[in-house]
Specification:
Blueprint (H helix, E strand, L loop, with lengths): L3 H13 L18 H9 L8 E6 L4 H14 L4 E4 L11 E3 L2 E2 L2 H15 L7 H15 L4 E5 L16 E4 L7 H4 L3 H8 L9 E3 L4 H13 L4 E2 L5 E8 L2 E7 L6 E5 L5 H18 L6 H10 L7 E5 L2 E4 L5 H14 L5 E5 L7 H8 L3 E6 L14 H6 L3 E4 L3 H10 L4 E4 L2 H13 L19
Parallel strand pairs: 1-5, 1-6, 2-5, 6-7, 7-8, 13-17, 14-15, 14-17, 15-16
Antiparallel strand pairs: 2-3, 3-4, 9-10, 10-11, 12-13
Helix pairs in contact: 1-4, 2-5, 3-9, 3-10, 4-5, 7-8, 11-12, 14-15
Amino acid sequence: MRDIETAYAEVLAELFSRADFEVRRPRLPEAFRLEPIRCLLERLGDPHRRYAVVHIAGTKGKGSTAAMVEAILRAAGYRTGLYTSPHLHTMRERIRIDGELIPPATVVHLLERLRPEIAADPALTVFDILTAMGFLAFAEAGVEIAVVEVGLGGRLDSTNVVSPAVCLITALSMDHVEILGPTLTHIAFEKAGIIKPGIPVGTAPQAEEAMAVLRRVAAERGAPLLTLDGWRYGPWEISPAGQWGEIRPPEGSGWSVRLPLLGRHQWENAALAVLAALQLRAQGWSLPDAAISEGLARVRWPGRFEVLREEPPVVLDGAHNDASATRLAETLMEVFPGRRWGLVFGVSADKDATAILRPLRPLVGEIWLTRSRHPRAADPAALVAAAVALGLRARVRATVAEAFEEALASGGPVLVAGSLFVVAEARETWAARGGMPMPEVDPLPLRVGGR
């Protein structure tokens, strides 16, 4: 009989042998279709209809917000599911039950359960299958409420088959333009696709171009559109160890909160998570004030302004577009003022390296250009021109581990950014040095993204 480790490796090989849109990306949103996953879930008995769902779309912050909502629900005593993407080290991070990664044996069981249903449908993508696995895992585990993060876009994303209790849309900015469209209006339209008739949808503050789309779609579908207008949220104190501050809705006393995630933008995500909790409370879910404070205080979301060492500082952040890089730069200046950083940098081939580097340039002394093991990673030699044009002295290194070790040896502050895949490999290198417990890493080098 095969051992579980071998069986799990075979499952991964089988999954990723299928067409993967993170490796071979289509040019138009219409290349995505919901019909295959709808039919698959129907054959499985519609497991996604056996529990309540909070559905979250957005460009930045949707993963952090999902983690916060799930932490609040778990602190209130509910059995929770959390479905997110992409992952850092192991595919099992995408499917969590009560905060724990599903074990390899469960992954093997799920694919054995799914295999007869997916064999006859070549239209199913890797992300379709992973989404179905997550929904089935939640149903079989008796999850009461699941927090589901959109993989890419919203309207045609595999997750958009759920019937949510609450929808959330985090901050929108330009990303995946080759798929979602060339303007913020196009992107907002795709994200607004998760809005359901009559279901409340909460939104972070948006540019007017995007907000106009959300207002129109919500009005067309009779969905109450809830904003953070009139809310007070933000920090009193920020240190490398975390943030302390308040979240106060227009009505009520609000909460004093310790937030482990760094960056002022995380208060916007936290306020949106609280908005979702209040909507669920209005629907009859028992979510005491203490559960909201406790959940936010306990949330973890690695790879997002993650401080590995305070002195000299080592920071990892998966910033991969200009908006997220701007927030990263602002947070670096606030948490570690006056520092000059050595930057370990790699991006996916479809990203605008110059746009990401530009906000970071005033803080960076030298740069190590590298690539992750992901098949879509850009050749670091192709990034040299972007770095040099910004006045950076660039070094090219073949692997993240080599670049990160060399940056650490320089003795100064080190920042790793540009891609979550690069961040993941830096975390693994740091763990190998004894700086943290070694994360569980899948036996295959291939990492897939959100869709």
